[in-house]
Write a structure and sequence with these properties.
This is NSMCE2 isoform 11. The protein is mainly α. The protein contains 2 helices and no strands.
């Protein structure tokens, strides 16, 4: 017997972890900005190899990609939940 209920608790738990990781990305962006500002204020010469611009672009890219992934998974979960509900309603004659 199918109950018409699909459990996504494992997927939702993983999404929650990814959302926590997004907070880490934001913290990294804040830290990189702070370091860059400190370097400018102290007029410290830094090799182009250690570009804060590059770090910020990488953080922003990672954040954008993670956002897209989380939204896609959430959308899929929502869609499958609606389909499962519709199937159970049909199955139960409702």
């Amino acid at each position: 017997g199918s109950t018409g209920f699909i459990s996504f608790s494992g997927v939702e738990s993983a999404l929650s972890s990814l959302k926590n990781f997004q907070a880490c990305i934001n913290s990294g962006m804040d830290t990189a900005s702070s370091v860059a500002l400190d370097l400018v204020e102290s007029q410290t010469e830094v090799s182009s190899e250690y570009s804060m611009d590059k770090a910020m672009v990488e953080f922003a890219t990672l954040d954008r990609q993670l956002n897209h992934y989380v939204k896609a998974v959430q959308s899929t979960i929502n869609h499958l939940g609606v389909v499962a509900h519709a199937c159970s309603s049909s199955y139960l004659g409702g």
